[in-house]
Amino acid sequence: MRDNVNRRSFLGAAAGAGLGTVLGTNAVVAAAEAAEKVKIVAVSCSPRKGKTTAQGLQIVLDAAKQVAPDRIDTILIELAGLSLPLEPAFGQPVPEGVRDDFTMVAEQLADPTLGALIVGSPVHYANMSTLCKIFIDRLGMFRKDFRLSGKVAGALAVGAARSGGQELVLRCIHSALICHEMLLVGDGKPTGHFGATLWNNSNDDISTDEFGVKTAANLGRHAAETALRLAR
């Protein structure tokens, strides 16, 4: 019902501006629906491509997509194997002959339809991974004009034990993203935890971690619901 009201409001405003005549009703409806679309980007900061951090983030994205399949676009970015020089984070040029793959990542985050960013990291000595810290440092380019302000942000961490430092990693990621004026969400009701905390308990397989998988799915749902509300 709320969706119909939103469309009627949009059509009413468009008719008042004469857009219905110029574009046609179908085009105006399409524009209304496009305006409500949001993209949810998950960034895996594990040096191991396709492993448990990426698997956990895919659970997040799948759950987010289920909230509104026609309005939510999802993308998983894995930093493993990318060339991410640190020099630009400190205002220095990329060394000659060095490829900078962060530009591809930045393009996704600069998309106006971005509704939520989920950052995932393995636990390395009770902290985020080196790749995660590099990502956050390079993300500083968006803080110059606070382009991520008002966007939803969430975090995921994978550890080698049930209580293996996951919440410490979540807190580190949250602390960085709040500096961008992003809106932090956890895994929401009914548990209301800080985010997704997964346990890689054997053979790079998180599927048997029922509790962790549930936190990842709940994070995706909560992030998607919040992003859609903000988009409206």
| Distance between the ends | 14 Å
**Structural class, from secondary structure content?**
alpha/beta
CATH fold category name of the largest domain: Rossmann fold
**Share of helix among residues?**
40-55%
Shape call: globular
What is the ordering of alpha helices and beta strands?
HHHEHEHEHEHEEH
Specify the CATH class of the largest domain. Alpha Beta
| Main sheet properties | 6 strands, parallel
Mean model confidence by pLDDT: 87
CATH architecture label name of the largest domain: 3-Layer(aba) Sandwich
Please tell me how large the radius of gyration is: 19 Å
Which strand-content bin applies to the residues?
15-25%
Total of DSSP H or I helical runs spanning 4+ residues? 8
In total, the number of strands is 6
CATH superfamily annotation of the largest domain: Flavodoxin domain
Overall number of domains: 2
Unreliable parts: 1-25, 27-32
Descriptive overview:
This protein has 232 residues and is of the alpha/beta class. It folds into two domains: 1-35; 37-231, 3-Layer(aba) Sandwich (Rossmann fold), CATH 3.40.50.360. Helices cover 43% and strands 16% of the residues. The chain is built from eight helices and six strands, in the order αααβαβαβαβαββα. The protein has helices at 2-16, 19-23, 25-35, 52-67, 102-109, 130-138, 166-178, 210-231; strands spanning 38-44, 72-78, 114-122, 152-159, 183-184, 196-199. Strands 1, 2, 3, 4, 5 and 6 form a six-stranded parallel sheet that branches. Strand 3, helix 6 and strand 4 form a beta-alpha-beta unit. Helix 4 (52-67) packs across helix 8. The radius of gyration is 19 Å and the shape is globular. The model is unreliable at 1-25 and 27-32 (pLDDT under 50).
